[in-house]
Every structure is written in C-alpha cells, then in structure tokens.
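quick one, 124 residues, struct below
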Amino acid sequence: MVTGKTALVVDDYHSMRLTLKEHLQGFGFSVMEAENGLQGLEMARKDPPDIIFTDIVMPVMDGLELCQELKNDPALVGVPVVVLSTHADASYILKAIHNGADDYVPKPIEAPLLKKVVARLLHD
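---
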C-alpha cells in the first residue's frame, strides 16, 4: 500500500508504539518511534517522515504541543499528523484539530479505520 514511506509514531507507552508499528509495517511503512513529543519533534526535524501519529497525553511535550510545533515549522507543515487517544469526546477532537492535527483515531486502534485514514491523508 505505501511501500517506501516512513511513519513516525509518538507515544509514551511502548505497547501502543509496538501495536501501531505492527499495523503500519503491515501497510508497508518503515516506522520510527519516539517516547514523547519533544523526542518526536527532534526526530521529525532530523529526518522528516511522510506521516506522524501521536498520542495526546505524554510527558515532556504532549501531542497537542507537538502538533503546534510541527505546523509552525516550514519544513514539516505539510506532513500529515494523526492524533491517537482514548479520549474520544468532541472536546479532545476539536482541540487536536485546532492545534494542527489532520485527523483523529480513537484507541484502541482498529486496522481498517487506520488504513482508511492513511489512504486519505497520503492520497493512496
């Protein structure tokens, strides 16, 4: 589906990064991982991915701050950002979109929805 593309997964829980990594590798992505928003931002600036998936609630820098930083960086503004969270109520979704997220996927992650979001954002 997306051979040759890179995804960055930013989540403070190793098990969540692993689950998402398995899904994304199944779609053909090469996957980079970060434990918090600051680490993710540094990785994205060093080697821009094709798409970024981030949790909202994390230590050091949360996903909303990460979205803002990415969308304020001319080199990364075009990289789609998907926010992932167990907080699926409208206020969190609106905050994520307001802060620059391109889409929102609730946890637990379902592969068919994830695949649709990836296809839409990467126009595959």
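The CA atoms of residues 19 and 80 lie 20 Å apart.
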